[in-house]
Amino acid sequence: MIGVDPTSDGLARAEQLxxxxxxxxxxWLLKQSDVPDLVFEATSAKAHQANAIRYAEAxxxxxxxxxxxxxxxxxxx
Length: 77
Hints:
By secondary structure, the chain is of the alpha+beta class. Helix content is 36%, strand content 10%. It is built from three helices and two strands. The chain starts with 8 loop residues before the first helix and ends in a 13-residue tail after the last strand.
């Protein structure tokens, strides 16, 4: 789980549950030796537009979960 706020309750909870978590954002993720094939991104539409390019360059598929009406709508199951 990745965020940008080091005081995030969600990141703290993820770590407590044994999930690797970082407040380093996309920069942190892309520096890892083992990046995921897929990310679910719940940021702002503007941030997603900037990040989507970086994900694509790294071979990562990004699912946009932002509340803005940018791109196709999706509901993961």
